[in-house]
UniProtKB/TrEMBL annotation:
Highest taxon above the source species: Bacteria
Family annotation (InterPro entries): Inositol_monoP_metal-BS (IPR020583), Inositol_monophosphatase-like (IPR000760)
Pfam families: Inositol_P
Organism, as annotated: Lentilactobacillus raoultii
Keywords for the protein's UniProt record, in alphabetical order: Hydrolase, Magnesium, Metal-binding
Protein name stated in the entry: Inositol monophosphatase family protein
């Protein structure tokens, strides 16, 4: 896509996100309808569903020929990366949303033939938007993202998945011990924002496309490494253990994973 087209799309998506955030904040203190999906820790609320329907309707009107992959299933059954594909997570960190009313995000990504064009991660309560793509650059609330220091694992904090640490998947305990400390935020979007802002040197978790679709675009544009946990290539439709980090921390983690 040409830069001029991407700039117009960027402006439009930011408008959707402002409206989406307003919709969520108006309903955040209302009585939620909460259901489980795969387990008691995998929740969905009426707000998740309403927000995804809202975003799907906006995309359908704006880009009717595109495919939409949404966490709650109101988009399309996407099995191919061909063409234009939007990936949306209406509430990332639903448990945090339900129990804390904080530390959750809205995420949108746009891919063209498997190539990331634009990514958006909005910290709803913090009102912080990380946005951009390879042709536009990465922005933090509209300002160019500050350069990210290439910090090693031993010199920084790392965001980890709680279950992965408890099960010591991929030597996760060793990874935590080699770092200055681990943090568990409970939202991929919040963790990815923290890595992009240099607050964490990396983040590891089992993720699905809507969890990392936007982050993959932003991290690659910002010069971070984002791969499968074994260093393998990460496709836009992958569901796997994901490692994103500074180049130095990424190398350090892969050394520990390979032991």
């Amino acid at each position: 896509m040409e830069t001029s087209e991407l700039e117009q799309i960027d402006k439009t998506v930011k408008g959707w996100l402002r409206e989406s955030r307003d919709n969520v904040l108006r309903k955040i203190d209302t009585r939620l309808t909460v259901n489980t999906k795969t387990s008691r820790r995998d929740l969905v609320t009426n707000i998740d569903k309403q927000n995804e329907k809202f975003l799907v309707s906006k995309i359908r009107e704006f880009d009717p020929d595109a495919k939409i992959l949404g966490e709650e299933g109101f988009g399309d059954k996407v099995t191919s990366s061909e063409g234009r594909v939007w990936i949306i997570d209406p509430i990332d960190g639903t448990m945090n949303f339900v129990k804390q009313r904080n530390h959750f995000a809205i995420m949108i990504a746009l891919y063209q033939d498997g190539v990331g064009e634009l990514g958006y991660i909005l910290d709803v309560i913090g009102n912080r938007l990380l946005s951009g793509g390879p042709k536009l650059g990465v922005f933090d609330n509209g300002q160019p993202l500050a350069p990210i220091e290439n910090t090693s694992l031993k010199d920084g904090l790392i965001g980890l998945s709680g279950p992965m640490v408890l099960n010591n998947d991929f030597n996760m305990v060793d990874i935590a011990e080699k770092s200055l400390g681990m943090r568990i935020y409970g939202s991929a979007g919040i963790d990815i924002i923290s890595v992009l802002r240099g607050e964490l040197v990396g983040y590891i978790s089992y993720l699905k496309p809507w969890d990392f679709g936007a982050g993959k675009i932003l991290c690659e544009t910002a010069g971070l490494e984002i791969t499968a946990i074994d260093g393998g290539q990460l496709g836009m439709l992958s569901s796997t253990a994901v490692l994103l980090a500074t180049r130095n921390a990424h190398r350090d983690v892969l050394t520990i994973v390979g032991k």
